Amino acid sequence: MGKCAKYALKAAVIAICVVSTAAAMSSRPQRPFTEFKKNPDDRPVISSGSNGRPTFMSDPVVIKDKEGYHAFFSNFYIKKNGQYWISFDPQNQDAYKMDDFVGSIAYAFSSDQGLSWTLRQTPCLMPGPQAWCDDVLETPSVIKDGDRLVMFYSALGSRNGRKFLSRYQIGGATLKLNGKTIREKLLDESIQFTKIKQPVVPHNTSIIHHDNNTQEPSVVLKDGRFELFYIGLTLQKPDEQIPGVPGQGIKKVALYKAVFDKDLNLILAADDALINGANITEVHYHDGAYHVFSTQSPSWFSNYPGKAEGLDKFHYDESITYYHSAEGQSWSKPQTILEKGTENSFDSWGIMAPTVVFENDRLVMFYTAWQLGNQTMTPLPADGRYGLRRGQEQTIWGTMGRAEATYNPRAWEN
Questions:
Q1: Is the predicted pLDDT of residue 4 greater than 60, yes or no?
Q2: Which terminus of the chain has a smaller tally of CB atoms within 10 A, N or C?
Q3: pLDDT digits (tens, 9 = 90+) for 326-375
Q4: How much is the pTM?
């Protein structure tokens, strides 16, 4: 056989191998679960804005144990009778001290896989007293580690006695269970998490850096260490707050990782982004792979900080995407797995902040569901719902939706 013929035959064999490999890859499922279906599809599982429901909720994380599901989420608490309460009653507005409120972390328990919930009435973690976390606490991530719970959260604070608006840092807190269940411990209103005094992932205000904002943590316990995934924002002006500053803007949004030991001492802080464009994520390591459930922000997001007070596009048209990785370094392309509902539905404005419970053969997802309605907030009618004012005649409500998918980790096996 001549030299040219040998090369031709070799090229043909390579081409066949490439085609075969490509065909095998294309036939391999892109994810180990079916399409998510909202369940229920006509209402949230936790509503908001009326008596007996959270005042204004978002950013849930849900974990499970033998007793049931445990939800931790951001909520707006207004003081009544000397205490901050999870709920607001529009029919009894005079009972509340409307100028005394906090944004903090709520807890709820479900014994029926998240279809109905029992709410703790007071925050399980409070802002302060340190300046870096004395304004708002939100976006919790919670994991059980032996006889304790470990929480990571986003914190807003103050600088030089003034609020440092939209400049987040990540904090940590723990709660000893002392042999009790999570439900028993946290439905006791006298119990709160103990906060670590300094941020575990501080923001960088000195140079343009991916840690100019550190926010939306998600923790994985693997090989005896806490792998903390979080969103880092690179800002145009690292020493300034975000809203109201000419020239301020977001240069980059991405998912990063830091690693901590069991005493929450930092072991590793990676400089390289894991996933560019990921936002408000939850990360799992399950069945030998990393699974990232993320918020997909529309194109307007990168230009939003200049008008962050306007609420004209507040989380509008966001959806939920999925990435996976075997080793946590190279990632699949994003797949959209859940989108907002139709007009007038409970999630018509947008959806974000997914959290997923892995059951044996199912995935149960919870997410922030935003609804836009034609209602005034100033004044708030007695038969209305407390929410976020958008213009003079509209209100945005934050609630928690639920969806399910069939899960089959063997779908990836050859």
A1: no
A2: C
A3: 999 999 999 999 999 999 999 999 999 999 999 999 999 999 999 999 99
A4: 0.91
If DSSP codes are grouped into helix, strand and coil, which group holds residue 250? strand
In DSSP terms, 106 is beta-bridged to: 73
The domains of the chain are located at 29-412
* Class level of CATH domain 29-412: mainly beta
Give CA–CA dist 103/128, Å, rounded: 12
Residue 116, both tokens: 């109905």
Tokens representing 219 are 């923790």
Can you give the pLDDT at residue 300?
58
Instruction: Give the mean pLDDT of 296-322.
Output: 70
Buried b (16+ CB within 10 A) or exposed e, 36-60: bebbeeeebbbbbbbeebbbbbbbb
SS3 297: coil
Q: How confident is the model at residue 298 (pLDDT cuts 50, 70, 90)?
A: confident
Report whether 400 contacts 366 (CB < 8 A): yes
Cβ of 13: how many Cβ atoms within 10 Å? 10
Please choose, from the candidates 368, 365, 367, the residue with its C-alpha nearest in 3D space to the C-alpha of residue 404.
Answer: 365
The neighbour count for residue 413, using CB atoms within 10 Å, is 8
Burial readout 105-140 (b: 16 or more C-beta within 10 A, e: otherwise): bbbbbbeebbeebebbebbbbbbeebebbbbbbbbb
**Rounded distance between C-alpha atoms, residue 135 and residue 327, angstroms:** 37
CB atoms within 10 A of CB 148: 15
DSSP 46: B
Structure token digits, residue 316? 């509008």
Question: Phi/psi of residue 369, each to 5°?
Answer: -110, 120
How confident is residue 310, by pLDDT bands cut at 50, 70 and 90?
very low
d(CA 326, CA 161): 46
Nearest-angstrom CA–CA distance, 198 and 229: 18
pLDDT at 244 over 80: yes
